[in-house]
Hints:
Blueprint: H1 4-15, H2 22-42, E1 52-56, E2 62-64, H3 65-79, E3 84-89, E4 96-97, E5 107-115, E6 126-134, H4 144-148, E7 157-163, E8 167-172, E9 177-183, E10 188-193, E11 204-206, H5 217-226, E12 234-235, H6 241-251, E13 254-257, H7 270-283, E14 287-289, E15 309-312, H8 314-323
Parallel strand pairs: 3-5, 11-12, 11-13
Antiparallel strand pairs: 1-2, 3-4, 5-6, 6-7, 7-8, 8-9, 9-10, 13-15, 14-15
Bound molecules: 2,5-anhydro-1,6-di-O-phosphono-D-glucitol (AHG) and manganese (II) ion (2 copies).
Amino acid sequence: MQTVQQHIIERQRQEHPEASGEFSWLLSGIILATKVIADQVRTAGLNNLLGDTGQVNVQGEVVQKLDDLANETILACLGFRDTVGIMVSEEDDEPHIIKEFDGRAKYIVLFDPLDGSSNIDVNVSIGTIFSILQNREGVDSSKVMDHILQPGYRQVAAGYVIYSSSTVMAYTTGDGVHMFTLDPTIGAFRLSQEAITMPAQRKMYSVNEAYRSQFPQGVQDYLDWTKTDEAGYSLRYIGSLVADFHRTLLRGGVFLYPPTKKAPEGKLRLLYEANPLAFIAEQAGGAATDGRQRILDKVPTALHERTPLIVGSKEEVERVASFWKPE
Ligand code: AHG
Ligand code: MN
Ligand code: MN
């Protein structure tokens, strides 16, 4: 039996002997938070935790009670970890400045505390997504946005937890993608799959086709092609990015959230949804673009900026690109 903490320490010892355990201490804070959230999600219906708070967040979305609770849980579990300098949450307008960067506090944690909010009350899989950056050497701590708005290829780690029939965590630190299942009898995430590779192709696409008429013409052409006899694709769309991504990581296919007239830059957020999942996809041999460029090459200009997202099996992402070449 190998727990995720043991796995992280083991890999750190092998791959990054210079690491002083600060990183694994930080990740253990995230692991603790997601165990608490898993329990809150599982019993939400019994503790009056379903439904919304009546508040609207910076995204312009109604905040669900569990969004709020998951957000507070992560802030509390990570807030006193002395290796964290800044935290950025989908739910909060501004970054949380925990402490000045110093020899120990060098990490920036960006997260979507609960992804798939529209599915919470109907007991469909939801999740938590996180991305970890290091502060930029030689840049003063006060230049907060300079430290946060780094391109995705600078991530030192990324991961997600999906709260579903079982609670599963996937993470990468740049040495492959590893997956763990929460064992409720001992309250620990145990290794279930190491060095996951995404199938290079699969005839499955995942998109909210209700918005089809708003998509760029090239995307509509791709969607027409998938329905031809020669193509023979099937469609799966759960409406929780983490769940649609998790299926794509394990079984292959392609997930698309293209630009729409309502959301010309796409709906999904670059810093704490697209970047972490793009890092994981590439580490598993897949690909992630915004239709024009690699997600991980995008230089962010705003905390909550949105991006179109095409992510999945390399061949499937390339096939979408063969139909849709944004001008
Ligand atoms: P969040 O709940 O964190 O706001 O994210 C919801 C996102 C993502 O999970 C999913 O892929 C997408 O919203 C679904 O959007 P549509 O309902 O427009 O298809
Ligand atoms: Mn989300
Ligand atoms: Mn969310």
